[in-house]
C-alpha cells in the first residue's frame, strides 16, 4: 500500500460514521492507490476535499471547500454540508458533535468511480460494506 | 461484508479495476467544430440583442420620467413622440429576436449536437 498523502490543513474527526460504518481515529475513509478520494475535516464546515480522476491524472477538484470549477458547489447549512457537481449531490454530511461526523450520502459514480452509499451501507466496486467498525486505521477502504 | 464483532484494525482492500471503471464522457471536438462554436459571429443575434438592450435602457428612462411626473411633481411628461419611438423599438426587437430564434445556425446545430451527445452517453 502506498503511503497516504493528506492535505496539510486537514484535521480528521475522531469518529466518522460513514454510510452505516464507523471509523475511529482514522485518517481517510476511502483511498485509491494512497490518494484520499474525499475528506471532510474538523474546523469550519467547509473543510472538504475531493480528489477524482481527470483523464489519467488525479487532482483535487475541491480543496478546503474551494474549487476552480464553478460546477462544484459546497453548501453549508448549520452543522450540515452538501457537495454538488452541477445538479448531482456527491456528498452529504452532518456534524453530530465536536468529534463526530456522519456521512449519509456518497455518490461518485459521475467520475467513473464505483463508490456510492446511503445512511445504511456503502457500495465500493460492487461490494456492500455495512455495520463495520474500524479503529486506528489510516484508511477504511483501500482501492488498489 | 459481514458485521464484525470487534473493530477492524486493517482496511478493507478492494480491487482497483472494480472501482475505477468508466472514464469521463468526452466529446471529440475537432478544430473546425470549435471554430464553428466560437468564431462565427451571428450578425442577426448581435443586432437583435443590441436592439433589445437599447430598448431596455430607453424604457427605463420613460418609466423614470413617469415616476417623476406622478410622484415627484416632475415637469417633463412623456411625449407622444417618445411613446411612438418606444413602440417602434419594441416592434423591431420582436422582429429581430424572432428572426434570430427561427433561423438555423451552424453554431446552434453544433451546441444541440453536443448536448444530445452528452444526454445519450452520460445516462448510459
Question: How much helical structure, as a percent, in the residues of chain A?
Answer: under 10%
Query: Low-confidence segments of chain A, ≥5 residues, pLDDT <50?
Result: none
Q: What distance lies between the first and last C-alpha atoms of chain B, to the nearest angstrom? A: 28 Å
**Average pLDDT value of chain A?**
92
Major sheet attributes of chain B:
none
Taken from the alpha-carbon principal axes, the silhouette of chain B is elongated
Secondary structure tally: strands of chain B:
1
H/E series of chain A: EEEEEEEEEEEEEEEE
The radius of gyration of chain B is: 29 Å
Helix-strand category of chain B:
mainly alpha
Number of DSSP helical runs of chain A: 0
Biggest interface, and residues per chain? A-B, 34 and 21 residues
Number of strands of chain A: 16
Low-confidence parts of chain B, pLDDT < 50 over ≥5 residues?
none
Q: Roughly how many Å is the radius of gyration of chain A?
A: 14 Å
Oligomer: heterodimer
Helical/strand content category of chain A: mainly beta
- Summarize model confidence as the mean pLDDT of chain B: 83
Secondary-structure element order of chain B, N to C: EHHHHH
Shape, principal axes of CA atoms of chain A: globular
Amino acid at each position: 500500500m502506498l503511503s497516504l498523502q493528506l492535505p496539510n490543513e486537514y484535521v480528521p474527526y475522531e469518529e466518522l460514521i460513514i454510510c452505516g460504518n464507523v471509523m475511529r481515529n482514522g485518517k481517510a475513509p476511502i483511498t485509491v492507490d494512497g490518494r484520499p478520494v474525499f475528506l471532510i475535516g474538523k474546523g469550519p464546515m467547509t473543510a472538504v476535499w475531493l480528489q477524482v480522476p481527470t483523464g489519467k491524472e488525479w487532482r483535487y477538484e475541491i480543496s478546503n471547500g474551494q474549487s476552480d470549477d464553478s460546477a462544484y458547489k459546497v453548501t453549508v447549512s448549520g452543522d450540515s454540508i452538501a457537495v454538488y457537481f452541477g445538479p448531482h449531490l456527491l456528498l452529504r454530511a452532518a456534524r453530530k458533535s465536536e468529534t463526530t461526523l456522519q456521512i449519509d450520502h456518497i455518490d461518485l459514480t459521475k467520475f467513473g468511480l464505483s463508490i456510492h452509499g446511503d445512511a445504511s451501507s456503502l457500495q465500493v466496486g460492487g461490494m456492500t460494506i455495512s455495520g463495520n467498525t474500524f479503529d486506528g486505521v489510516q484508511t477504511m477502504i483501500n482501492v488498489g | 461484508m459481514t458485521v464484525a464483532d470487534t473493530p477492524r484494525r486493517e482496511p478493507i482492500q478492494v480491487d482497483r479495476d472494480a472501482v475505477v471503471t468508466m472514464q469521463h464522457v468526452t466529446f471529440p471536438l475537432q478544430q473546425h467544430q470549435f471554430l464553428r462554436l466560437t468564431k462565427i459571429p451571428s450578425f442577426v443575434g448581435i443586432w437583435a440583442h443590441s436592439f433589445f438592450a437599447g430598448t431596455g435602457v430607453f424604457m427605463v428612462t420613460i418609466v423614470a420620467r413617469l415616476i417623476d411626473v406622478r410622484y415627484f411633481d416632475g415637469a417633463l411628461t412623456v411625449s407622444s413622440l417618445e411613446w411612438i419611438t418606444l413602440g417602434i423599438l419594441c416592434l423591431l426587437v420582436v422582429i429581430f429576436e424572432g428572426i434570430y430564434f427561427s433561423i438555423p445556425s451552424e453554431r446552434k446545430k453544433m451546441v444541440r449536437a453536443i448536448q444530445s451527445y452528452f444526454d445519450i452517453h452520460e445516462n448510459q
